[in-house]
Design goal:
Mean pLDDT: 78
Oligomer: single chain
Shape: elongated
Largest sheet: 2 strands, antiparallel
Structural class: mainly alpha
Low-confidence stretches: none
Number of strands: 2
Distance between the termini: 53 Å
Order of helices and strands: EEHHHH
Number of helices: 4
Radius of gyration: 26 Å
Length: 106
């Protein structure tokens, strides 16, 4: 009989500073967007202190917002939200449960 080693964590998602999976990608996207926005403002000619302040605020937002969403929704939370919203709240039946059972037995 062959024995195989189990490598735990092979299918784990990338994690950086507590952000996993798509939340890490959201964070990277927001950070890159903040950097390009800062470069655009620099090319337009806005003051350097304003550019640096906006850059740091954008980078802080790039970490705070995805980490808040991860804590609120969990790992698969945003994929589950449309499914939970589509579940019926109430099921109506025109016949009673006893009638349904008696029809099945016949």
């Amino acid at each position: 009989m062959k024995r195989y080693q189990i490598f735990r964590g092979v299918d784990s998602e990338i994690e950086l500073y507590g952000l996993r999976g798509k939340y890490l990608y959201y964070s990277i996207g927001i950070a890159v967007g903040a950097i390009f926005f800062t470069i655009l403002l620099f090319m337009i000619g806005s003051p350097a202190l304003v550019n640096i302040a906006l850059l740091f605020m954008g980078l802080a937002f790039a970490y705070v917002y995805p980490s808040h969403e991860y804590k609120k929704n969990g790992r698969w939370g945003t994929e589950k939200l449309p499914i939970v919203a589509a579940k019926p709240k109430v099921i109506f039946r025109k016949t009673s449960f006893k009638n349904i059972i008696s029809q099945v037995r016949k």
